[in-house]
Design goal:
Elements: H1 2-51, H2 56-65, H3 70-85, H4 89-102, H5 109-122, H6 126-139, H7 146-158, H8 164-177, H9 182-200
Length: 201
């Protein structure tokens, strides 16, 4: 009997760390499962709220209730677009900036950056618009919006005295870096026009 008790004590002592570790892992897994379920439910609730949001107030509700969710990211972009439609360009630019601050690595971040540039251009602040487009091109060099950004920069630079060489540079970069883009084809035509214009001078 003593031998059996000693053997049991030895087993318990030897296995204590493994048992504690196993219980700890079990608690962590259970906690993780509960947390995962909570996260999934929050995502579903955010998505449902976003799906039914159509007004500025409803979009703002999505953003305030679920600030770090994909639904909030979408709501910020829609809110900024709606603010622009209403002529509230400063508010729209601030909303795009909120998106960039909250979701700097989001796949739609270049869209928010483009939105800021477009707001500057709509406000007839040409230097700020060009600067925003250039910053976008630098920060998101392989984004799907970069070909448009380069082409838009070129067109805008062409309207300013003495900036034709910069416009040409943007068009050449576009042709080299994004040869399969539709804007690359447009850039070739624009370069042809620039060359023809230069030949006449």
């Amino acid at each position: 009997m003593v031998y059996k008790e000693l053997r049991m004590e030895f087993f318990v002592e030897k296995s204590k760390k493994a048992i504690i570790g196993g219980v700890a892992v079990g608690i962590i897994c259970a906690g993780g499962a509960i947390s995962l379920v909570a996260v999934c439910r929050a995502r579903q609730a955010a998505a449902a709220l976003f799906a039914n949001a159509s007004t500025v107030e409803q979009l703002q509700t999505v953003i305030s209730k679920y600030p770090r969710s994909d639904a909030a990211a979408g709501a910020l972009l829609l809110l900024a677009a709606e603010q622009r439609r209403l002529g509230r360009l400063e508010d729209s630019s601030m909303t795009y900036q909120r998106f960039l601050a909250a979701f700097p690595k989001h796949s739609l971040a270049p869209i928010a950056a483009l939105g800021r540039a477009e707001n500057a251009l709509v406000s007839e602040n040409l230097p700020a618009g060009i600067a925003e487009l250039q910053a976008l091109t630098t920060k998101y060099p392989v984004s799907f919006v970069v070909p448009f950004s380069l082409y838009a920069q070129a067109e805008l630079l062409m309207t300013q005295a003495g900036r034709i060489p910069e416009a040409r540079e943007r068009l050449q970069n576009l042709a080299v870096k994004f040869p399969n883009s539709a804007f690359s084809r447009y850039s070739s035509k624009l370069l042809f026009l620039l060359d023809a214009q230069q030949a006449k001078e």
